[in-house]
Amino acid sequence: MEISKETVFDEFENYSYILEYYSPESDLEEKAHLGITHWISLLLYVVAFVLGIPGNAVVIWFMGFKWKKTVSTLWFLNLAIADLIFVLFLPLYVSYVVLSFHWPFGRWLCKANSFIAQLNMFSSVFFLTVISLDHCFRLIHPILAQRHRTLKNSLVVILFVWLSASLLGGPSLYFRDTLEVNNHIICYNNFQEHDPDLSLMRHHVLTWVKFLFGYLFPLLTMSFCYLCLIFKVKKRGIPMSSKHFWTILCVVIAFTVCWTPYHLFSIWELTTYHNSSFQHVLQGAIPLSTGLAFLNSCLNPILYVLISKKFQTHFRASAAEVLKHSLWEVSCHGITSEQLRSAETKSLSPLESIQ
């Protein structure tokens, strides 16, 4: 099935997480400008992948397998798992841009790729909200926290977060589709091409659901938690680990900085149904804001290392333990090999040992 690209841009003006932004009407200067923004977004994807894989893998390894299981480590462990799952799919985005927005991976990977992106966005912000609520609850109501803040209860909360994120990201599995356009296959939101009103309604609903549940409500909740925390701490003189506080706060700030442009441009994108005068701006802005949002998946491990003294101490101790264990295995292997050679030499006749 082949249709003109102009028809596609007339009927499917829902670009979020798509990146097929080359308009046939653009002049050469505008195309060059858009090309620059796409290559910058590509660079952001590559940076997120290169830093996100080892960074989140290290966090998962130490918090999941080396350190004692606590409620706090479970929060950060699942945050790292959400980020790692997402960055593992980033090569698909990179390939999409490199291939001039041609999607050769099939319809189901188109759906899965977008679903993972949505799952990461919702689960990350939900876990950050839970971390903020937990931190506030633990310091302001220590007695209640000691009674109810258990590993069993935290696992229930973790399961609820993953289920909620999956349900909110689920529409991607239904609406994402592939379409051949001028020998290019694009991965896009098929909101119902034959009914513009239905397409507009679905696009509005999903965009506002993302904004409200994936950004605004969690951000307001986190802001409220930290304001309450600051006021209560100053009023009651409650002791608080400043490094732990700043670690969580910087993680929340990083999420806000990375995801705010994406959500703002997604809302602005809705106006293209009624006024296409800013379409060329969005064609450059949405890929850049999407790349910035993706970059958030590699920032958390960096923030842990730079800010959290506790994480640094645990990391050095764990790394030293791993190195010590590796050296011990090498040493034991060397001793065993030496013993085997000695035993073999003794078992040989004098003539054989000389030979």
From TrEMBL:
Instruction: Choose any GO biological process term that the UniProt entry carries and state it.
Output: positive regulation of cytosolic calcium ion concentration
Q: How does this protein sit in the membrane?
A: Multi-pass membrane protein
Which keywords has UniProt assigned to this entry? Cell membrane, Disulfide bond, G-protein coupled receptor, Glycoprotein, Membrane, Receptor, Transducer, Transmembrane, Transmembrane helix
InterPro entries per UniProt: CML2 (IPR002275), Formyl_rcpt-rel (IPR000826), GPCR_Rhodpsn (IPR000276), GPCR_Rhodpsn_7TM (IPR017452)
- Gene Ontology molecular function terms on file: adipokinetic hormone binding; adipokinetic hormone receptor activity; complement receptor activity; G protein-coupled receptor activity
Q: Where in the cell is it found?
A: Cell membrane
> Could you name the Gene Ontology cellular component terms for this entry?
nucleoplasm; plasma membrane
Domain G-protein coupled receptors family 1 profile residues, every copy: 55-304
Q: What is its main location?
A: membrane
Q: Write out the transmembrane intervals.
A: 36-62, 74-94, 114-133, 154-174, 211-233, 245-265, 285-307
Pfam name, any one: 7tm_1
Assigned protein family: Belongs to the chemokine-like receptor (CMKLR) family.
This chain belongs to the protein called Chemerin-like receptor 2
Q: Which species does this protein come from?
A: Mesocricetus auratus
